[in-house]
Design goal:
Blueprint: E1 2-8, E2 26-27, E3 30-31, H1 32-43, E4 48-53, H2 58-69, E5 75-78, H3 83-103, E6 108-114, H4 122-135, E7 137-143, E8 148-152, E9 155-159, E10 165-167, E11 171-174, H5 175-181, H6 193-198, E12 205-208, H7 219-231
Parallel strand pairs: 1-4, 1-6, 4-5, 7-12
Antiparallel strand pairs: 2-3, 6-11, 7-10, 7-11, 8-9
Length: about 230
C-alpha cells in the first residue's frame, strides 16, 4: 500500500497579525510547517509527503530549508486560489503516480492535512489510515467541551452538544474516492475534504482525534503551541 500526505499550507495568516504567513512563524527555532512535517515523518518515514504551497511562498520556504536544515524528504506542489483548489492541484501533482500504482493493483491512500496542525499524534494518523483502508474515508474528530447555543431570528437557544464534534485533520481517503470528489466543481459549502467527498454520496467514518491537534490560527494558539512544545 502506498501512503501519500498532502500538507496544505496556503494561509496568509491574517488572524495572526503581521506579515508572516502563519505556517512560517517560528516555534522553538523552526517554522510551524517544519514541525508538521516532523510529525508525519516520525509516524512513518516511508509515507510520501507533498507540501502544497503558493508559488510566491516557495522561494521563502526553500530558503528556510537551506538555512535551518529540513531533514524530512518532501516535494512541493503549487497552491491554488482556495483550499479546494490547492488540494486539487496536489492530487493532480500525484495523479500519474497514483494511476501507475493502481495499474499494479497497489492500494493508494491519500491524507490531507492542515500545515498549521503540528501536534497531531502518530496514533491518530495511524487510526485514520486504518479506518480509511477499510471504509474509504476517515476523519479525526473531538467531542465538544463547551456548551453550545444556536442563533436564529428569535434569538438564541441551547443545543445538545453531544450531537456535535470538532473536525480535525488528517482526513484520509482511498485515492479513487478523493480524485473523483475533486473532479466536482467548487462550492462555497466545501469547508474541508470530507464535505467534498460527501457531496458525491460517500459516507465518512469518524475517528477519535487528539486534543493537542489544534489549528494554529490566532496569537493565543501560538501561546498554547509554545506550551505544548515545552512539555514534549
Amino acid at each position: 500500500m502506498r501512503k501519500y500526505v498532502l500538507i496544505v499550507a496556503g494561509g496568509k495568516g491574517l488572524r495572526m497579525g503581521g506579515d508572516l504567513p502563519k505556517q512560517f512563524i517560528p516555534l522553538e527555532g523552526k517554522p510551524v510547517l517544519m514541525h508538521t512535517l516532523d510529525a508525519f515523518y516520525r509516524w512513518d518515514s516511508s509515507a510520501e509527503l507533498v507540501l502544497v504551497l503558493p508559488e510566491d511562498h516557495q522561494p521563502y520556504w526553500k530558503m528556510l530549508c537551506r538555512e535551518i536544515g529540513c531533514k524530512v524528504p518532501h516535494r512541493i506542489a503549487n497552491g491554488g486560489e482556495t483550499r479546494f483548489h490547492s488540494v486539487r492541484n496536489g492530487l493532480q501533482f500525484l495523479s500519474e503516480e497514483i494511476e501507475n500504482a493502481s495499474e499494479r493493483n497497489e492500494k493508494v491512500l491519500v491524507a490531507v492535512h492542515d500545515g498549521v496542525r503540528p501536534f497531531v499524534s502518530p496514533e491518530v494518523i495511524s487510526a485514520c489510515f486504518e479506518e480509511a483502508e477499510k471504509s474509504g474515508a476517515a476523519i479525526p474528530v473531538m467531542p465538544m467541551i463547551d456548551s453550545l447555543r444556536e442563533t436564529d431570528a428569535n434569538g438564541s437557544h441551547p443545543v445538545d452538544r453531544s450531537r456535535y464534534f470538532a473536525v480535525q485533520t488528517p482526513q484520509v481517503f482511498h485515492s479513487d474516492v478523493l480524485l473523483k470528489a475533486y473532479s466536482q466543481d467548487f462550492s462555497p459549502l466545501f469547508t474541508d475534504d470530507a464535505s467534498v467527498v460527501e457531496a458525491m454520496g460517500q459516507s465518512i467514518r469518524l475517528v477519535t482525534g487528539n486534543r493537542e491537534n489544534i489549528k494554529l490560527t490566532t496569537p493565543f494558539d501560538l501561546l498554547i503551541a509554545k506550551g505544548l512544545l515545552s512539555s514534549l
